[in-house]
Specification:
Elements: E1 8-10, E2 17-23, H1 28-44, E3 48-54, H2 64-75, H3 80-89, H4 96-105, H5 110-118, H6 120-135, E4 143-146, E5 149-151, H7 157-175
Parallel strand pairs: 2-3
Antiparallel strand pairs: 1-3, 2-4, 4-5
């Protein structure tokens, strides 16, 4: 599973480890998993490319899709990661007014934000992310892929570290 040009990523594209994270802005487990992601980013630094992809579970989280749209609308103004953080920080307050207030708090152009928030391209991007997750075996959030392989374990940092170590070992064995 390679990152695409439309992915939101932090880190070097040539990093040794790629961590793809499918998440839902209303999912408390996705929010909790971010603690592990932050520890891994700190500890692995330039060795890690972190990618976040949308996987809104609308049947149980009715505001997840609109929150993903807000993140994408902010992303069109270069502020995906700031909006991403706000949405998880305030995941119980994701109605239209809240999303608008978050956009203003990070200094987005309000008219452009509202246009992008309602754009069919914004929702098409979210749908592509969701479809890619489903094709890859994602059933719930959070879901992680480490160097292209679905991580079936817990999202706690120790479980992710172990899976990363196993992935690095597999790559080393494949090269020899």
């Amino acid at each position: 599973m390679k990152p695409t040009l439309e992915d939101h990523a932090q880190g070097r594209l040539d990093a040794e480890i790629t961590l793809v994270h499918y998440g839902d802005y209303q999912c408390p487990h996705t929010r909790a998993s971010l603690l592990s992601v932050h520890v891994l980013q700190r500890d692995l630094a330039a060795r890690l490319l972190y990618v976040f992809r949308h996987f809104p579970q609308e049947q149980i989280h009715p505001r997840a899709r609109s929150a993903a749209a807000a993140a994408e609308a902010a992303g069109s103004q270069g502020e995906f990661w700031r909006m991403h953080a706000l949405l998880f920080e305030h995941q119980t307050a994701l109605d239209a007014k809240d999303l608008h207030d978050y956009a203003m708090a990070i200094g987005l152009d309000p008219d452009r934000f509202e246009r992008d928030l309602a754009s069919s391209e914004t929702f098409a991007h979210i749908d592509r992310s969701l479809a890619s997750g489903k094709r890859s075996g994602v059933r719930r959030t959070p879901a992680f892929f480490i160097n292209g392989r679905l991580h079936e374990g817990l999202y706690r940092v120790q479980s992710l570290r172990q899976a990363i170590a196993e992935s690095i070992t597999r790559v080393s064995l494949d090269r020899s």
